[in-house]
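Fresh eyes needed here. Have a critical look at this protein's tokenised backbone.
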Amino acid sequence: MERTVFASIKYSARCQDCSAELECWGVQSLVNGSLRWDTESRCPACGFAVAACGGDLPAELRDRLLSERGPALLQVDPSARNAVIMRVLRAELGLDLAGVRSVLNKVVTGAYSGTMPEMEFLARKLRASGIDAVAVQSWEL
């Protein structure tokens, strides 16, 4: 069983009930081969609380994660077969042929990035197809 990979942040927002400062937490995780996200917010002033979760990461939460945690990069063995990489990318990202070619170029040059859970998800799919792939935080390079 592979380990759970996650990226989390703490941030503030305005309470919709009393306008005080909310305490908010957001997380994206890779659990049992699936990407998930959730957020929780709590107002210490009035007690308002809300939690939300889902499959597709909301753009605002993704932007916050990338801004605070930095991007992760997907790296593949330079000798890997492009056709196999393209097949995985098309299947997992839902890209057409033109789109997958653009992403393929970024992947083979080590420039394709996203959140750590997103890049680890793709790395696992590539490894399952016989491609040596890893996800690394850009600040680790």
